[in-house]
Design goal:
Layout (H helix, E strand, L loop, with lengths): L9 H7 L10 E4 L4 E4 L8 E2 L2 E2 L3
Antiparallel strand pairs: 1-2, 3-4
Keywords: Ribonucleoprotein, Ribosomal protein
InterPro entries: Ribosomal_bL32, Ribosomal_bL32_bact, Ribosomal_zn-bd
Protein name: Large ribosomal subunit protein bL32
Length: 55
């Protein structure tokens, strides 16, 4: 049975099994305010799905 010569460090193990990726934010044009906003988020002017939710 094969046995490794040295112990694998925690940093090396974490590097090997990482699945994290940098993704771009989803941006959609909101026609109610006439501006771009991130999907599933309240806009800077307080609108969500065409309704004013924050004063």
């Amino acid at each position: 049975m094969a046995v490794p010569a040295r112990k694998t460090s925690k940093a090396k193990k974490r590097l090997r099994r990482t699945h994290q990726k940098v993704t771009k934010p989803e941006i959609a044009y909101d026609e109610t305010i006439g501006d771009y906003r991130r999907s599933h988020r309240v806009s800077l002017k307080g609108y969500y799905k065409g309704k004013k939710v924050i004063e």
